[in-house]
Design brief:
Layout lengths: L2 E6 L4 H11 L11 E6 L12 H13 L4 E6 L6 H11 L1 H6 L4 E4 L5 E5 L7 E5 H5 L2 E5 L1 E5 L3 E3 L1 H4 L6 H10 L1 H9 L6 E11 L6 E11 L2 H11 L8 H8 L11 E4 L10 H8 L4 E3 L5 H14 L7 E4 L10 E3 L12 E2 L6 H8 L7
Helix pairs in contact: 1-2, 7-8, 8-10, 12-13
Length: 365
């Protein structure tokens, strides 16, 4: 039976992390001299929607105390460009904080990748960070957030940050959920911690932070995600990605089959992206039958940038959608409608271009 710990976090994050590790049975996983890689969710989009630096530092110190020979923090953020990535890390204070405790940061984009070709449910070729594959122990530490496609984006999805930048978008094209499951079959994840000190609702980068004051930990990545999802109102079986991961033999997604150590699991429902869209844009008619998460994310980015200047009332995306006559069409899947509709091409369409189109900048073809 997989064990998952739920631990309160006060002012001493290091102590809370150590307690979470003890409760989850993670003491002893790291052997003397091991190389340990810590994989946070440092997305380069918004510090608020990122694993807290204090949690990452606590993980580093704990790994060192366990006897690790080398501790590395590695991440491959959203492909937003080198300047934005460096600005994000500087604003967070990541480099200085890690250097102060003798830990180096590796941007996976610059590191060596191991290539995998022609694997089931994956793009024709992907590259996975060699450090993530060859380390002795990988500590996987996402922040607790909602997601438009996966419902929650936690430990299982966090390993997507080990990919080369182009591969991340390719996952959306071949089917995000099965691709993420296939990736997890290739990448080990010996210790899994969900930073639930604050959870993000509404949107996975620009949403609102809800204080929970918790760390969730397990050696079973699926189990950790299942408990974290249940914590925000998604009980067993309600998160398709976790059900798929469990069916692939990656862990246990049924909360009732888990041993919960520490604090009790007390659910509270957060607002999910679909709820947020309806609340913020009640006048917007969205046709998204068959739309992938990449197009949905581009729309959310576009809506955020367009703000109060939006003129478009109807949007269509996804191969199965049938656009209304006056709908703005998004993405390659509906290219057959480009001749008759205002549209933004691309797979996925660019969020900035979507914002422009929402403001009426795209002429009717």
């Amino acid at each position: 039976m997989s064990r998952v710990s739920i631990s309160k976090v006060g002012t001493d994050v290091d102590a809370a992390f150590a307690l979470a590790m003890e409760r989850a049975g993670c003491v002893g996983v790291i052997k003397a001299g091991n190389r340990v890689v810590i994989k946070p969710n440092w997305n380069a989009c918004a510090i608020a929607g990122s694993t807290k630096l204090a949690v990452v530092v606590a993980a580093c110190r704990w790994a060192q105390a366990q006897g690790a020979g080398e501790v590395i923090v590695g991440e491959g953020p959203v492909p937003v460009g080198r300047e934005k990535i460096e600005s994000y890390l500087a604003a967070m204070g990541a480099h200085a904080a890690l250097a102060a405790i003798g830990v180096r940061f590796v941007l996976f984009d610059d590191a060596e990748h191991v290539l995998f070709r022609d694997r089931e449910n994956l793009p024709p070729e992907i590259g996975i960070a060699k450090l993530a594959l060859e380390c002795d122990v990988l500590i996987n530490i996402p922040i607790l957030k909602v997601h438009s496609c996966c419902l929650t984006t936690l430990c299982v999805k966090n390993l997507k940050g080990c990919l080369r930048p182009p591969d991340k978008m390719a996952f959306h094209r071949v089917g995000l959920l099965p691709a993420v499951v296939a990736l997890n079959r290739l990448v080990p994840s010996q210790i899994n911690v969900v930073d639930a000190i604050e959870a993000m609702e509404g949107d996975h980068n620009r949403g609102r932070l809800v204080p929970l004051g918790l760390l969730i930990a397990s050696r079973d990545r699926v189990a950790a995600d299942a408990v974290a999802s249940a914590l925000i109102g998604l009980p067993s079986g309600k998160v398709p990605l976790l059900k798929m991961a469990a069916e692939a033999g990656l862990g246990e997604h049924r909360v009732e089959k888990l041993e919960i150590a520490g604090e009790p699991l007390v659910p509270q429902r957060l607002e999910f992206p679909q709820d947020s869209l309806k609340r913020h844009y009640p006048d917007l008619d969205i046709q998204d039958d068959g739309a992938c998460s990449a197009c949905q994310a581009a729309l959310m980015d576009g809506l955020y940038v367009a703000g109060g200047n939006r003129k478009v009332k109807k949007v269509a995306m996804g191969a199965k959608s049938k656009p209304a006559e006056d709908a703005l069409v998004l993405g390659k899947c509906l290219s057959k409608h480009f001749a008759t509709h205002a549209h933004v091409p691309g797979c996925p369409p660019d969020g900035t271009a979507v914002a422009c189109a929402l403001q009426g900048c795209v002429p009717e073809a």
